[in-house]
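Quick one, tokens below. Sequence please?
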């Protein structure tokens, strides 16, 4: 016998098959599911509605069923247009487990390597050239060829895990930001910049021009700021230029010519933290006059320094091992903090 809970079940099936969908698309699906259930059992009291509170109540009912499975039907605004996008997310996911049914372990390891290079990319550009993405295959202990890697990249783009720009640069899609956010936050805590306005991760948007100021905003969040508030920075209070386009970009627009050559050096594990890095830390300290200076900036420059050194010849082989284990990042960051 068809029951009202069948609306949720049908709806979830539709969501799973699509991966990620917009709010308006989700409303259409909800209505279709209600119609299907009513067609089977006309006396059932189920309905779909365009009223926000009814939609939210429906989402809550879905999550009551999903939460015991460590899943959540969650939304985020896409970084470009600010469109509300929904997907079912693994809430326990500090690993990239949700891709396991579609990709082999080697392909997931490759994806993880590409994500790492995107997160560690210079200048907060959060993107990676095609060439650099293919080069990541060399760092993996698998026999994946470049042409296989190319087809994995194509599939990741087709399934909405990565975006590929007109310039051929890869970046994280809304789906990745939504589904991988616990993974990104636990592995790249210093690179996960938060939008000053909506508090979600920013990988494309604008930054305040003041050095060391932490203000980052999505374009859509920035556009929605009342004119009065858009005149000066909420964090450092400096006046912002009248021409909004002169604010510093975050995302692909931030990459400069020739900056993309070197491979970002992967994270070190605690055991491998060397004296060399202690030196780095003390060098960093010289540039940091007070504790009030945001920690994020220090770490960012530390990453940049590591990159310079990582570009020296002969280091790539030693790095492979660590490269496969981004989850050690946290302990390294902690160990740095403890030493301070
Ligand atoms: Zn925002
Ligand atoms: Zn500022």
């Amino acid at each position: 016998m068809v029951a009202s809970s069948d609306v949720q079940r049908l709806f979830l099936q539709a969501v799973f098959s699509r991966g990620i969908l917009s709010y308006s698309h989700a409303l259409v699906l909800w209505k279709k599911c209600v119609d299907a259930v009513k067609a089977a059992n006309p006396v059932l009291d189920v309905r779909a509605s365009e009223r926000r509170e009814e939609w939210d109540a429906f989402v809550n009912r879905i999550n009551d069923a999903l939460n015991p499975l460590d899943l959540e039907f969650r939304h985020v605004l896409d970084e470009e247009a600010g469109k509300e996008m929904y997907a079912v997310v693994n809430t326990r996911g500090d690993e990239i487990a949700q891709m396991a049914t579609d990709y082999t372990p080697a392909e997931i390891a490759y994806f993880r390597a590409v994500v790492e290079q995107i997160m560690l990319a210079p200048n907060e550009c959060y993107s990676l050239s095609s060439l650099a993405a293919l080069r990541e295959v060399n760092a993996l202990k698998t026999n994946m060829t470049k042409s296989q890697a190319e087809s994995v990249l194509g599939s990741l783009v087709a399934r909405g895990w990565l975006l590929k720009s007109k310039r051929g640069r890869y970046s994280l899609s809304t789906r990745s930001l939504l589904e991988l956010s616990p993974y990104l936050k636990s592995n790249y805590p210093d690179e996960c910049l938060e939008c000053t306005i909506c508090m979600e991760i920013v990988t494309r948007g604008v930054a305040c021009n003041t050095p060391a100021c932490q203000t980052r905003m999505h374009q859509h969040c920035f556009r929605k700021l009342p004119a009065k508030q858009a005149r000066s920075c909420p964090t450092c209070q400096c006046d912002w230029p009248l021409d909004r386009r002169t604010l510093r970009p975050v995302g692909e627009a931030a990459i400069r010519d020739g900056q993309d050559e070197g491979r970002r050096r992967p994270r070190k594990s605690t055991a491998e933290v060397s004296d060399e890095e202690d030196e780095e830390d003390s060098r960093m300290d010289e540039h940091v006059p007070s504790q009030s200076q945001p920690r994020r900036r220090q770490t960012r420059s530390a990453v940049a320094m590591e990159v310079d050194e990582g570009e020296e010849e002969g280091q790539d082989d030693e790095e492979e091992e660590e490269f496969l284990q981004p989850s050690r990042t946290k302990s390294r960051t902690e160990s740095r903090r403890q030493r301070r």
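Residues 205-250 form one domain. The longest helix spans residues 23-40.
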